[in-house]
Amino acid sequence: MDGGLDSAARSAQNRAMDIRPLSPDHAVSPQIDPADLPAIAAAGYRKVICNRPDEEIPPSHHAAIMAEAARDAGLEFVSHPVTHPTIGPETITRQMQVIDAANGPVLAYCASGTRCSVLWALGRAGTLGVDAVLQATAQAGYDLAPLRPQLEAFAGR
Predict the structure, then answer these.
(1) pLDDT digits 0-9 by tens, 42-56
(2) CB 47: neighbour CB atoms within 10 A?
(3) What domains sit in the chain, N to C, each tagged with a CATH number?
(4) Which helix (H) or strand (E) holds 10?
């Protein structure tokens, strides 16, 4: 993967859209708007992952609309809709494959950023360690401490 985002770009985007870095090459966010995508690209992100099912959002923010706006901004866009009940080994593996295949920093979004954080934490617990993913998500404003048993189980895979 290419290097991470520069701190000025991160800082500007964090204020404007509530982008919350979990690592140098991955951040999460609550729902973004199609008009945000040029600024996301300008901040150094290369790929955007939508973890929201279209059924949760108005047509103006459906994955197809977001994908077109992302392409227009020069971003790769991946629709990977999940709900909390559907988070499992397959969805976690797919999320990690999409992140790992990125050619630069990735922004994943959902309603609040929590789903994206859970997917990332479960997928990275084995490589970064449970304490490290809990610390990263807590610093981003997501308290995933109640998921420690699941994180430990996934870390042992």
Answers:
(1) 999 999 999 999 999
(2) 20
(3) 7-155 (3.90.190.10)
(4) helix 7-17
pLDDT tens track of the chain, all 157 residues? Answer: 345 554 434 444 444 689 999 999 999 999 999 999 999 999 999 999 999 999 999 999 999 999 999 999 999 999 999 999 999 999 999 999 999 999 999 999 999 999 999 999 999 999 999 999 999 999 999 999 999 999 999 998 7
79/83 Cα distance (integer angstroms) = 13
Query: Two tokens at 110?
Result: 């959902």
Helix or strand run (H / E) with residue 25: none
Residue 60 burial by Cβ neighbours in a 10 Å radius (0-12, 13-18, 19+): exposed
Per residue, the 3-state secondary structure of 79-124, as one string, reads ECCCCHHHCCHHHHHHHHHHHHCCCCCEEEECCCCHHHHHHHHHHH
- Give the alpha-carbon dihedral of 56, 61, 62, 66, to 10 degrees: -140
* Residue 127, token pair as written in the block: 């490589």
